[in-house]
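Morning - 2-phosphoglycolic acid inputs below, output right after.
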Amino acid sequence: MKVVIVKDKKELGQRAAEIVAAVMNSRSTPVLGLATGSTPLPLYERLIQLDKQNKIDFSTAVTFNLDEYVGLPPDHHQSYRYFMDKNLFDHVRINKKNTHVPDGMAKDPDAFCCAYEEMIEDVGGIDIQVLGIGSNGHIAFNEPGTSLGSRTHVTELTAQTIKDNSRFFARIEDVPTRAITMGIGTILEAEEIILLASGENKADAIAKALEGPITCMVPASALQLHPKVTFVITRDAASKLQHFGK
Ligand code: PGA
């Protein structure tokens, strides 16, 4: 595992964008796995700049997002589809038809999950997956206790995640309680993975993910099983590491 420790969010965005751009520029049809949340925003800002400067080309890219709340329509301001449109897709030369976000309004969410797996398989898998991490060590909406072999599935959010995400909603009662998420097994099949983290509140989760035992109680620790992972993290998020970055 590679750990890149950066001084601030701007550098986090730049370093992460360099890694994503290298993958984009090495494929005729790059398949990107994308994440929502506040952490990847500096990455998306930088990718938008690179697209405008013709240093990368989104027009041939295909994207798959990690997750979506169940029950939020695409035009809901807290839906992940809306987030991706506003923070990336509306600003780059991508064909929206090639952007995939799980359908939170699917009539049969379980059937949708199987279809999502097939869509990823049909394009030959994900070339690079971007991940954030929850303060409890979750990746996507794979909460502690999720099987390390899990595939795309419907999941109940934990009280901690509902609390963490309530900052985006008017009231905590408005936060959806279920989501569709790629599984940990799905994520581990990406050819390359970058995990981004900033802030002291992620320091415990980062230390456990990188230096703790591999356990379903810390879903991000499963990344230790993957051959090509880079953590791009700020100094405060790295502050509890004992070995990496020292
Ligand atoms: P954040 O969320 O980037 O908003 O901190 C990350 C996550 O919960 O996966």
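Note: Residues 9-25 form the longest helix (17 residues).

O.
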